[in-house]
Specification:
Layout (H helix, E strand, L loop, with lengths): L13 E5 L6 E6 L6 H16 L26 E2 L5 E6 L11 H18 L12 H14 L13 H17 L4 H8 L9 E3 L8 E3 L6 E4 L6 E3 L2 H15 L6 H4 L1 H10 L6 H26 L7 H23 L9
Helix pairs in contact: 2-8, 3-5, 3-9, 4-9, 4-10, 6-9, 9-10
């Protein structure tokens, strides 16, 4: 049993299992406690649906030993530990993510996403309806429009990382309290996004896209726990936006950075109206709503994460991208009916 080289943000325990006889590897992963079991069942079925129709791009869950499966769990792909936690075992996808890909590698990743979206389009809706990406944004923007000062800190004030996070929160609030930005937030909450919805991954950032050792092939896209029914533009914004944050080219629009990637995607799939604009809007609002969410988790809800240095780096990158995102949003003319 080998621990992964990088710990994720969710806090769920993840281990790589290595069979010394066969050489095969699998991923043993604790399921997030807040996700209903039938939602996990749906993500397993979605991966199987996509993979059976083409490339094996999504991690497939493995059936467990029937004699050890809890009778209370409705799927043979999930087991219950003695402490009540739920676990799944997934096929291992060998390769590595790319923090700073070339343009052709970005295009490969976007083409792979288009392939997944195409094959997932005919799959049924998940059992639980969750807020779409834009519905969540609207909720967060409404809260931000009311935020005039930093709320009281409920975390450990002796933690140096958390105190740094607090300083970043104050800097963030100074940015969104600039003249005219509250009106921008209110205008954005009246914006209506496209009704193009289907199964999408929703947590597709650069560390989840696995390239081959030669880096000229996408082997798979991992971590489907957040998959659901949403606008496919959410996935493109999440992936391209994560690469833009790492490159710190925050003043550029995503389409200007990777026009061929957008062209490749829209050639392969019907992306709906104003696709590049939708992707950009999802990305820009994700920057500010993402920051607000991190501050809430860390300073108000007192949540803990396994790798605080990575969390601090993520928050710092988001804050660095905030001025450019706010500038673009301020000049956006929201539409109350987009088809």
């Amino acid at each position: 049993m080998i621990a992964p080289t990088q710990a994720g943000f969710s806090g769920s325990i993840t281990c790589i299992l290595n069979d010394p006889k066969s050489g095969r590897k699998h991923v043993l992963k604790q399921l997030p406690s807040l996700i209903p079991i039938n939602q996990i069942h749906w993500t397993h079925a979605l991966a199987a649906h996509v993979n059976v129709r083409g490339h094996q791009l999504l991690p497939t869950a493995i059936d467990c030993n029937e004699t050890r499966r809890s009778p209370s769990i409705s799927t043979p792909k999930v087991v219950t530990h003695a402490d009540g936690t739920l676990w799944q075992c997934l096929e291992y996808i060998d390769g590595q993510p790319l923090e700073a890909p070339r343009h052709d590698q970005v295009e490969l990743a976007i083409t792979s996403l288009a392939d997944i979206h195409n094959r997932a389009a005919g799959f049924h809706k998940p059992p639980h309806r969750t807020l779409s990406g834009w519905e969540r944004r609207v909720q967060q923007l409404r809260l931000l429009a009311k935020s005039k000062e930093a709320p009281p800190v409920r975390c450990n004030t002796s933690d140096e990382n958390l105190m740094h996070i607090r300083e970043l929160q104050i800097e963030f609030l100074q940015l969104i309290n600039a003249p005219g930005l509250r009106d921008t937030m209110h205008r954005l909450t009246r914006h209506t996004m496209t009704t193009v919805h289907q199964p999408v991954l929703r947590d597709c950032w650069w560390d989840h896209v696995i390239f081959s050792g030669s880096k000229d092939l996408v082997k798979g896209i991992i971590d489907m726990d957040a998959a659901g029914w949403d606008d496919p533009a959410v996935d493109i914004a999440r992936l391209l936006g994560s690469w833009q944050l790492e490159s710190r080219q925050n003043d550029a629009q995503l389409f200007d950075l990777w026009p061929n990637a957008f062209k490749s995607y829209t050639t392969l799939i019907a992306a709906g109206t104003n696709f590049p604009s939708r992707v950009q809007l999802y990305h820009d609002t994700a920057i500010i709503s993402g920051l607000q969410q991190w501050f809430t988790w860390l300073l108000t809800e007192n949540q803990t994460f396994t790798n605080m240095q990575s969390v601090l780096q993520r928050v710092t990158l988001l804050l660095g991208a905030t001025p450019a995102a706010l500038k673009r949003l301020k000049h956006l003319q929201p539409k109350c009916s987009v088809n």
